[in-house]
Amino acid sequence: MLLYEKKKNALIVRLNGELDHSAASRMRGELDALIADSGARRLIFDLHDLKFMDSSGIGLIIGRYKLMRRLGGSVAVFGSNARIDGIFEMAGLYQLVERLA
Q1: Closest to 99 measured CA to CA, from 32, 44, 17
Q2: Residue 33: CB partners within 8 Å, gap ≥ 6?
Q3: What is the pLDDT tens value at each position of the chain, 101 positions in all?
Q4: pTM strictly above 0.85
Q5: Which of 66, 3, 53 lies closest to 24 in space, CA to CA?
Q6: Which long-range contacts (CB under 8 A, 24 or more apart) does 9-12 make?
């Protein structure tokens, strides 16, 4: 189950633990439905509690980026640790999503 909150036109989703193939598969549909139901125009991932992310996690982020762009919205992240930040840098995700302080 996703932990999230809606603030104005932003949907803040907390990612925790491991974002691997299994977690990304479970999360994808729930997250897409949440985006559609919320009407949010900004999706913000809180990465404070995310410990591991593989290519499936990268795919999840890119897929939500594409969805939000189609809806006229944007994606941002905050709270990444050094390991997750390195993955975002290496994958070029910071060219797609905004890094918040």
Answers
A1: 44
A2: none
A3: 789 999 999 999 999 999 999 999 999 999 999 999 999 999 999 999 999 999 999 999 999 999 999 999 999 999 999 999 999 999 999 999 999 98
A4: yes
A5: 53
A6: 9/39, 9/40, 9/41, 9/42, 10/40, 10/41, 10/42, 10/43, 10/44, 11/35, 11/38, 11/40, 11/42, 11/43, 11/44, 12/44, 12/45, 12/46
